[in-house]
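We close this part of the discussion by returning to an individual protein. The sequence in question and its structure tokens are set out directly beneath this paragraph:
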Amino acid sequence: MTFPVTTVDLGPRVQAGFTTRVGGTSAPPWDTLNLGAHVGDDPEAVASNREVVAAWLGVPVAYATQVHGAQVLHVTAPPEPGVWTVGEGDALVTTRTDVALGVLVADCAPVLLADPRAQVVAVAHAGRAGLAAGVVQAAVAAMVDLGAQVDQVVSVVGPCIAGCSYEVPASLRDEVAGPVPGAVTTTRWGTPGVDLVAGVRQVLSDLGTARTDVVGTDTYDDVSLFSYRRDGPVTGRFAGLVRLADRPDT
């Protein structure tokens, strides 16, 4: 490993973790480990940063073009060299051991999921709109389609903007309140807010998954992470990453 990464436990033969903004080659304001290819950064720097991440995982990483929806992409092969995205969607799922899955964020919640027994993994990009649209439910459903059992699915919600920092107009808070009432909160300023972590945990609990862990870092407050709300529209993206490791007998 050549860069700081928060590793998390998703069970046997599952490698997973979250990057920070440290350890890459991008210049300010994307400094330094920006993994987003859509934010105005030098493509060569982004490619180099993605290579660093792939080296840690030991396999190529599939990333999607995220649009704040609930579309799930089934990754059936590693991306070809130089391919930035495997398609438009906000969740990825695979049973392959020769490719990792990545979800890019700068305040939205990166959700990593695995059924270690069935050997199925997934990632979901759970921002306010995606959470309301059902991206987490869609990711779990796609895992089940590939052999996972809901009561064996374990997950981790990575660093994201905390409810106390995520101020939204009351109308947008209310859009989330209908499908995910657990996400409704009040900010530190006493204004309407959305708690992405609480919302994701509610959804996964309602589905009956086995366990949901939370990293608990607020991107708005932690300058080691990219934050759209804190830094403005020109900033980078860090990643949540998961892969199935090869079986010992292969």
Summary: The chain has one domain: 5-244. The domain at 5-244 is CATH 3.60.140.10 (CNF1/YfiH-like putative cysteine hydrolases). The first strand starts at residue 5 and ends at 7. The CA atoms of residues 82 and 202 lie 38 Å apart.
